[in-house]
């Protein structure tokens, strides 16, 4: 069963507000890591782009919808919501929330031990009706990354649940150098772009670093 990945993009009003957002999200991350086995990733990240220094991204992965529902109902999250809704001065713009499910993904346990992992959040838009075909290329990229790129610590190809022509990715590398020198030059990436690049209509990147939370937790075993 695919997991559910939610990415929240918070635009802080100032550096002080940014730290308050990080602190509030960090508390939830501590709770999830200790008390919610089905929350397999809760990473608090910030943009490394000097032109976007007030953006905070929360990257959350849930084993199933029941875990999402329980997480949202928890006291920790209710306190977070209360903080964010009562102090609107924290935000420069409304928070954007992207709800997705995994098409293909893997995460290495080593991702939690990486000293300064380089994270990519990418959004790819495709021509009407072509997204499903595009997943074939991404399946090959994911397989190649998992089997032959030890420095690719996590890779998730995500089906946007609200925008039917959009694919999103969460990628974690041991370093930025590894992304450009190894992953980006792989045959799978090159072939994917050559075969499916012409049906893409837009491509956006956010380059991030982790400031709190965790990138990996083993998924709870299923009784099914």
Report on this structure.
This protein is of the alpha+beta class. It has one domain: Alpha-Beta Plaits. Helix content is 35%, strand content 35%. A hairpin with a 7-residue loop joins β2 (39-47) and β3. α1 runs antiparallel to α3 and α4 (131-148) runs antiparallel to α6 (187-196). It is globular, with a radius of gyration of 17 Å. 33% of the residues are buried. The model has no long low-confidence stretch (mean pLDDT 96).
Query: From N to C, what is the helix and strand string?
Result: EHEEHHEEHEEHHE
Structural shape: globular
- Given as residue ranges, the uncertain stretches (5+ residues, pLDDT < 50) are none
**Count of structural domains:** 1
**Share of residues in strands:** 25-35%
- Biggest beta sheet summary: 8 strands, antiparallel, barrel
Task: Classify the helix fraction into a percent range.
Answer: 25-40%
Structural class: alpha+beta
Assign the CATH class.
Alpha Beta
Distance between the termini: 11 Å
Average residue pLDDT: 96
> What is the count of helical runs?
6
**Number of DSSP E strands:** 8
- Indicate the CATH topology: Alpha-Beta Plaits
Rg from alpha-carbon coordinates: 17 Å
């Amino acid at each position: 069963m695919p997991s559910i990945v939610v990415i929240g993009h918070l635009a802080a009003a100032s550096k002080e507000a940014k730290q308050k957002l990080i602190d509030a999200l960090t508390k939830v991350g501590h709770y999830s890591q200790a008390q919610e086995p089905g929350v397999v990733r809760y990473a608090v990240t910030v943009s490394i782009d000097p032109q976007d220094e007030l953006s905070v991204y929360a990257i959350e992965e849930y084993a199933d919808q029941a875990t999402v529902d329980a997480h949202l109902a928890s006291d920790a999250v209710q306190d977070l919501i209360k903080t964010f809704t009562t102090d609107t001065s924290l935000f420069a713009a409304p928070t954007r929330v992207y709800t997705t499910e995994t098409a293909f993904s893997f995460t290495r346990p080593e991702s939690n031990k990486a000293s300064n992992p380089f994270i990519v959040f990418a959004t790819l838009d495709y021509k009407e009706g072509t997204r499903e075909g595009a997943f074939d290329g991404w399946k090959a990229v994911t397989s190649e990354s998992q089997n032959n790129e030890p420095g690719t610590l996590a890779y998730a190809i995500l089906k946007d649940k609200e925008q039917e022509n959009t694919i999103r990715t969460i990628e974690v590398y041991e370093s930025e150098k590894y992304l450009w020198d190894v992953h980006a030059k792989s045959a799978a990436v090159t072939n994917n772009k050559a075969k499916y690049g012409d049906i893409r209509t837009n491509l956006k990147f956010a380059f991030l670093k982790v400031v709190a939370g965790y990138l990996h937790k083993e998924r709870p075993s299923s009784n099914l």
